[in-house]
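Trying the structure run again after the queue cleared.
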Amino acid sequence: MSEARSPGQLLSILGLGFGLAGAVGGTIGAGILRTPGLVAAQLPAPALVLAAWLLGGLHALLGAVCTAELAASLPRAGGWYVYAERAFGRRAGFLVGWTDWLAHCIGLAWVATTVGDYGAALLPERLSLHPLAPQVIALASLALFTAIQLGGVRAGSASQELLSLVKAAAFLALVAACFLVPLSAGDPAGAAAGPAAQLLPGPGSGTGASAAAEAPLPLWRALLPAVLALQGVITTYDGWASPVYFAEEFTDPGRDLPRSLIGGVLAVLGLYLLINAALLHVLPLEQLARSSLPAADAARRLLGPLGGKVITAVALLALLGLINTVVMAAPRILYGLSRDGLFPDFAQVVSPGGTPAAALLLTTAAAALLVLAGSFDRLLGMGAVLYVCLPLAGIAALVALRRREPELERPFRAWAHPLPALLVAGVSLAFLVGDLLGDAGDGLLALGLVLAGTPLLQLSRPPSPARPAGESGNLPDSPET
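Done. Tokens:
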């Protein structure tokens, strides 16, 4: 395997195993333990629930196919920013990169805070009730994975592969238990749902069903539950693009990046379908629809009181793998921006082990400050807007580069172009409009966060001489925006 090309550069030592682990680890979090209940609440039949998860996976697969062309053609560290800069110029590239880094920091802080909450629940009661216990655990998790990454890209990639493997094994064990372990005779179907089960109408029942029989709903009202279900599903598939942040560090990016992206989505799709089939096997649809944490309810039916602890441990595994992915990926954004003259020089400092150490410490510090700030409702709303915008920037870059640079070497070409790009862009635009209509304030604040970084453009400089020739987005024919 090849090592660093010169001092201060990243190591090209990653392969398909890491790419698959990155895609799986960046996608599967605690959301899959909760979202099945939200999806089932919108749909009237188990087959439709499974169909929603299948459609969400196909949407992610189309996005992976489009992104695979960009990643294989432009295998450089930095993620979405690389494609926006090449297609639209340095200013657009900076705005996309800055947006991406902000979204990663918000997501990292939220995941670490959730780890703190789950971790505190597993502590002895005397410690779990301490008000600072969740924050201490959250900060400790950030410190742990930062220390692992400072050990170098080999340590980081090994931890990613291990955590993704353990995470997948834990979920598969949960699936196997749902199908193989006899249900507890003392736990009736509705017990886990609590008193609310007797108060809430089930799907397709009660006054709503009578009203629907008397007066047909308008088409948009009839489709709204399916749209809401798909929104929850597609959000749970977010994270499949994680391998692109390490594109420069693959030994054979033209081959391994498309396989990582597409293979990772297919692996997650299969696992999500198995999880939902298992939950539907254990929990009646109406109970699943009423459950705020259906995986825990299923585990309690199988294992009794121990089930809640088991699901908390599984959630922790999922979240720790996600922290490792984000802590590893986000510094590559700042590294790429810095090397290309769009961020201060210090962020391109690389440790002997191949880690952008300064960018890593800045990312961890930003996430730690957000953890200490404590309130996430507004930040999560802004982060959701930012995350929807990033794939849109990638799709726009794909279409623009197909038109402007037909001669660009493309080891992988998106299937049936431009149909996948148009489908992904249409869904992303619909979600963005829905988010903005739901809370325009979050959209304006997100825009403010993005624009807050524009003063850094005044410090921009020519790209580093270490940058390979012919890979600058600021080419003579590359428009400035």
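The chain has a mean pLDDT of 84. Worth checking whether this holds up in the mutant runs.
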